[in-house]
Each structure stands twice: as structure tokens, then as C-alpha cells.
Amino acid sequence: HVLCVDTTATQSTWAYLSFVSESSPHAGNKELALTVDSAMWKHTLSLLLAVALAATVVPAMPTSIVANAGSPTQVHLAWLSETERVVGFVFPHDTSTVQFGLDDRSLDREAPGTGRSWKVPETDRTLVFHDVVIDGLRANATYFYRAGSEADGWTQTFSFSTVIPTTFAVYGDFGDVNDVSIKRLRKEVDDGRIHAVLHVGDLAYDFQDDDGKTGDAFMEQIETVAAAVPYMATVGNHESFQNFTYFDAHFSNHVPLAARTGSTSPRYYSFNQGLVHFVFINTEMFHYSPDPVQTKLMIEWLRADLQLANTAARRAAQPWIVMGGHKGSWMDKTNWTDISVLAHENKVDLYLTGHQHNYQRMFPFYHNQADLPADMARRRCVELFQAAAAGPSLRAQPFPSIDSCVSEHSITNHTYYNPKYMTAVVLGSPGCREKIAHSWGPANVTATKVPDYGYGHLHAFNRTHLYLDWELIEQDATELQEATPLGDYHKTADHLWIIRTDRP
To answer: pTM for this one?
Structure first.
């Protein structure tokens, strides 16, 4: 398969293309310089990206629409490993069963579940949560499943894929009201274009409202997404009611994963999916539950997790480290004193955050010092000229000098080449009752900002190229639409390549 990466187009219209082997996604890239006219380049780019997309789309997953009255509700999946998932649901009985199999007409395997009663705070309601581990899953297969019991009713038959996830929907701040992104999310899941969801805090708005029924409605709203792909979340300030108790209850299916990574809480944990090591942190504990013992536990856990993820052996398997949390280092009512240092020391590549209800992409920065496009371009150009001087290279050298090369590569801020610091991206506007906000990060480290609704897609193509785009939802963005590696139907308002050639 071929994939276009790290592109630039000028009046002379040349571009670098990287050819990536599907059979060896960890292999280094071979790059060629091409000279084409502008119209041909745009057409060729679209064709190449279509081929790349075809290699990453999971087949659409059929589901039954039949469910029994009184059957489990709020069904959602959590990742546990390549061969395991945790099915979470609400079912008012002490025991349950998840039936699953490779044929929706013959669910020939079963996993037992045990209910955990939870008294909804300040109400007379009780919910019973079930978290059932299903294991022994085959790779690259479609599984069908249902939850419940013969005596008390079954859910509809859902399905999920065990193809290694490569494309993730990423956002924070998604609610039951003004949920403008849900229709699009459902379509992308149905089409097999999203393999997991990463939700970085602020859910439902708010779980505790209307005696907890708002939280129930939100979980039922996302079921058509969360029952088909892992829905991985952490807390935001809107989950802080009574020490995050609603989040802990509704996302208790994160507990098995958290325990495996040494965490004592479903609010922070880590997991590997494909080429990425994901780390979710709780940025809200410093203000809303400032217990020094619990704070120290998370920081020490984060230190151990990132140090292990940054070892050569782990980077060989998961070359990218992506961290997620509700608030960025510049936001209020949090504390990044230790987090910033640990992320920098262990070379975290990307941080996904929310809280501010808009889209923002930062330049790579640390302690308010930005790594700007011109700086990254100069390092890249020096590397190119050094390689050319060393002898024959697959890269033709179209520039007469380093300065002209820097000038060429500084015209766009959409490619971060061997960045010195972690990149932060705010994805806080998939839709909620509080609508769009116009609060922004520090101007000196902000690359772009969009005050509109949307959500992001994150895709790790190989060990050197990580891609993120942000798709508009409510706006007619035809003028912003472009061919992207994830399909040219996206109304893409921004995109980013992070390219790393400086690691073994």
C-alpha cells in the first residue's frame, strides 16, 4: 500500500511521498521527491489516500435491532487486551450472562457476570452494574454478543471487531443535550472507520442531574457507539460530584484494565492499542479531591508507567505515547507541576485534552517555550543536506541552500518534524449544553484555534508518522474540505502530522 505523508506544495510543486509496507508497518520509510503539476498532484494525492484508507477500514458490523423489555441497558465496551473485552451494563439482577460467538445465529460461548448494587446518591434509586470479561477472542474477527439472562431478558445482539485499532475518535466535553456529534459518530462506527473512542472528561452534563437520570440517558445515547467499539474515558470537573462517584459507577468496566496497570482507580490507567501506548490521567483530583495520599499515588503510578513505556523494548512495540486528560497545563483548578516534568522526561508525543469548548492545536511546548515550525524546519533541512552530502540518497535535493529549504518548509504549521516537546490539542466541542466557548491557551504556543463543533480522529500509520485531524460537524466547511488519509469526505478544519525519525 502507498501512503502520502509530510507533504508540501509550492509554485514549483514538488512533494515527498513515503511508501509504507502493509506487511511491515514498523519498517522505516523510503522517501522520493516527485515533481508534478498542481492538478496532477491533487488528483494523485486523492488516489493514494483512498488506497491507504482502504487498508485501515474495518468491515461494517451488522447488529440485530431486537431487544427484550427489562433487558440490560447502557451497554458499553472497555478494552482489556487484544484477546479480551469488558462488557459493562446495567441489569437489576444479581447474576447475568454474556453470550458471544463468531456467528450471530449461534452465540456458542458464555461468560458469567455478577451484579454490584449502587445506591444513587441523594435518591431512592439503586442501579446494579455488571462488568463481564469475555476472553479467548481471535484476532481479526467479528464477534457478536448479547447480555442478560433467559429468565429476565436479553439485549439486542451487538457486534465488535478484534482488528487491532488504528483510528480513534478523540474528544472531551460531550453531553446528553446539544449532542451534535452523535449522528456522525454512529455512522463512522457503523462504517468501520472508528475503532475506539477516547473521551477525555466531562460526560453527560451532568451524571447526577435529575436524580442521576441524565447520566443514564447519556449512557443509553452512546450505546450504539460504545457497544461496538471500546469507549475509554477519564474524569473532568463535571464528574467531581461526591468525589467522582457517578463516573466510578458507570465506568466500572475500566477497573480490570486499571488494576492490570497498577492503578487503584478507573480515573487513571494505561493501555496499548496497535502502535500507541495510551495513558489517561486525572487532572481534577488536585482541586476537587485534594487528598495528598491519592495525589501521590497517581503521580508515582504515572512515573512508573511512563518510564516503562519509554524503554527501548516498549518503544519498539509502541513507538508512540499519547496521554489524555481533561485539562491542559495552562488551565485552572489543576496542577501540572509533576505531570509536565514526567511527560517531558519520558518523551510523551501527544496530549489530548478538553475543558475549553472549542478546538485548539498548540505548537510543541514545555514550560511556555515553544518549538516553532521554523525551528523544526531548520533541523529537518540540516538533516536533508547532511544526508545528501554523505553520498547518493533516495531523496533528491531540490533546494540550493539550507535557508531556501527552511523557507520552503516553514510555510505550513501542519507538520511537526522531530519536535522537542509534547504537543497538546484541545478537542472540547463535540457538543454539550454549555455550547461553544472562546477561552484560549497562551497565544505564544497556539498554532491554530477553531470556535466550532467537531471531534478529532487520531491514526498511527507507522512508527514514524502519527496523524490527527479535526472534523467540523455543524458548519458548511466545503472550503476547508481536503483529501486526508482518513477519507476526503471529512469537513476537516485542521490536521497535523507528527513525524519522528530521531528514534531507533
So the answer is: 0.85
- Establish whether the linkage from the previous residue to 124 is cis, with ω within 30° of 0: no
Q: How far is CA 235 from CA 90, 115, 213, 240, 493, in A?
A: 20, 23, 19, 8, 27
Distance CA 292, CA 277 (A): 27
CB-based contacts of 257, cutoff 8 Å, min separation 6: 78, 79, 80, 86, 269, 271
90: left (phi over 0), alpha (psi -120 to 50) or beta: beta
> Which residues share a beta bridge with 14?
35
Q: Measured between alpha carbons, how far apart are the two ends of the chain, in Å?
A: 23
- Rounded distance between C-alpha atoms, residue 263 and residue 256, angstroms: 10
Q: In this structure, what are the phi and psi dihedrals at residue 374, rounded to the nearest 5 degrees?
A: -65, -35
Residue 77 has which C-alpha cell? Answer: 465496551
Please, what are the averages of pLDDT over each run of 10 residues along the chain (504 residues)?
Answer: 39 33 36 36 42 48 53 97 98 97 96 97 96 98 98 97 94 96 94 95 97 97 98 98 97 98 97 97 96 96 98 97 98 98 98 98 95 88 76 58 75 86 98 95 95 96 96 58 55 91 85
Rounded to whole angstroms, the Cα distance separating 339 from 349 reads 14
Neighbours of 110 (CB within 10 A): 13
Q: Tell the residue number behind the cell numbers 455550547, with chain if given.
A: 435
